[in-house]
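Deviation from plan, reported transparently: flavin-adenine dinucleotide complex.
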Amino acid sequence: MIQGNLDVGAFDAFLAAFGDIPVETAPNIVKQKSRDFFWYSPILKQQLEECRGDAVATPRTEADVLRIAALCARHGMPLTVRGAGTGNYGQAVPLQGGLILDMIALDTVGPVIDGIIRVGAGAKLRDIDDVARSRGWELRMFPSTVRTATIGGFVAGGSGGVGSINFGMLSQRGTILGLRVVTLETEPRVIELRGDAVNQVHHAYGTNGIITEIEMTLAPAQNWIEVGVAFGNFRRLAEFCQTLGEADGIAKKLITAVAAPIPGRMRTLPFAVPPDASVGLMMIAGTSLEPFRDLVAAHGGELIYCVSPSEASAARATPIYEFTWNHTTLQMLKVDRDMTYLQTAFPEAGGLDLVVALCRELAGEIFMHLEFVRANGRVVCRGLPLVRYTTAERLAEIIGIFEARGSAVANPHTFILEDGGTKQTDLKQSAFKRAADPFGLLNPGKMRGAPPPLPPYRVG
Ligand SMILES: Cc1cc2nc3c(=O)[nH]c(=O)nc-3n(C[C@H](O)[C@H](O)[C@H](O)COP(=O)(O)OP(=O)(O)OC[C@H]3O[C@@H](n4cnc5c(N)ncnc54)[C@H](O)[C@@H]3O)c2cc1C
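Because the crystal trials were delayed, the predicted structure below was used instead.
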């Protein structure tokens, strides 16, 4: 049996050189740490189900990371970084075996100075938000997996989420202020990236550096009330969401629109959904509830849920955001295993007309779910429509229909970085990979624009 490019004896010697850094080789643990939420996609499920790493190392400090990086570079060992493994595209799945680097112990949180926080890459987003809130601040945005995901995984694999209605996506200048990144070289370096340079590593799936520390800008903390509004008509709900997004006097953190029949099928939604209703799920500042109620009434909606986070947790209700973003897909998968999803963008002009036209054209096959976000100062909607999956060919046709009608699709059914997002190689990311990972060992197989790996080193 071969691990990385080493035989078993050499692999054991390689691991022995880790000294007191915790290493796990138990097959059940290694299997568990080799997976993420790729199974959302029937296509990725088939491709990635059997992929496994060979061992899991859990560094406790940046010095441990440097030591592991040097060993991997010297022995030609593939290395896949892992946060909490909640990514959706198999980003954290090792395609070529090797070492899994579990970042969970690099979990320092703070200090918070003037609305800026510095954290270890393995820190849980929930813990970071809690510490920030105790100082009067909060994370500008978090994915709906905030209760489990790490900040390093969000920065390396995520894109935005709850809060993007105010601050845009994570790649927007100003939210990620700085990153410390360890290279995979025989003499690894620590590179500090700041400003626009952070996007060389943000959303690169850990293919071009190991992030050890992150500096984020925070927002002033607010008391967010969880609300649900019902509309008999999806278009009217979507128009309400657009108006709410543009209502500058109403403070909000989340605006989600889910078309009937999805809300009625979400089992753990903490309120009853009127028959055939489309539902808006929102987080509104307590100070803005009164004007929010007026806006709902003016648009002919019905306020059907309105609780503070403490009331929700006292009632053991699932937080409202766990029915939004990619949790909407998860909630539907719990009741219908034939569902999958797409990630789409709609143009600013005529976007809602296009949404409605696609719902009509693909009725019975797609079920619309929109997230409203800020993009370059404007409120736009992004789609995470649920799709009834039949075949890979039909899914490709549906993607083609979205694109032909004018909706850009970031395909979530591929683990290749460029194929999932912009559909072109990000030259800055691949140039950074050339410098930071000259042997092509970091999460190999995920970046199409990666330089070809150099011949690996061998033991002995
Ligand atoms: C139900 C559900 C809802 C979701 N909602 C959202 C959402 O609202 N918004 C969103 O953006 N995403 C969302 N996601 C995707 C995912 O949860 C987030 O992107 C999350 O932040 C990933 O964090 P993680 O710690 O689980 O990362 P992982 O899945 O462990 O890793 C993600 C990627 O980052 C790399 N990586 C991890 N840590 C590091 C590091 N320190 N240095 C370098 N590379 C690293 C990994 O190699 C991998 O490529 C959702 C997923 C699910 C299953």
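The two ends are 18 Å apart (CA to CA). We consider this an acceptable substitute for the interim report.
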